[in-house]
Structures are given as structure tokens and as C-alpha cells.
Design goal:
The chain is mainly alpha-helical. The chain is built from 3 helices and no strands.
Length: about 60
């Protein structure tokens, strides 16, 4: 597990905890949306890493 993943998991837990403690609907919605955005960014980073890794090791891409 990378340090970035560890920080993202910690931040996601903090966002959920703050949202659960909040009594304001708009604040809850914002905190849950921030958590969802954080999770989506994590997925996209992982996909980009996989794509980059695949392209770097693809002999078909080496000549271009």
C-alpha cells in the first residue's frame, strides 16, 4: 500500500466522520461528495498507472 493510498483512506474516514457528526444537510452533502471525489480520483490514478505501465512494456508502442 502506497503512502498516497494510506493518506487517501485516512482522509476518506475523516470526511465520513465529519459528515456523520454534522447536523447541516448541505455540509453533509458536501463532505460525502468530497469523499466520493477522493475515491474516484484514486481509481483514476490507479487506471493511469496501469495504462502507463502497459504502454511502457508494449513492444508495439516502442517504435512510435
Amino acid at each position: 500500500m502506497s503512502q498516497l493510498e494510506t493518506k487517501a483512506e485516512w482522509l476518506a474516514k475523516q470526511l465520513v466522520q465529519l459528515a456523520q457528526e454534522s447536523k447541516d444537510y448541505k455540509q453533509k452533502a458536501l463532505l460525502f461528495a468530497a469523499r466520493d471525489l477522493l475515491m474516484e480520483q484514486g481509481k483514476r490514478i490507479e487506471q493511469a498507472r496501469g495504462q502507463l505501465d502497459g504502454e511502457l512494456w508494449s513492444p508495439n508502442q516502442w517504435g512510435e
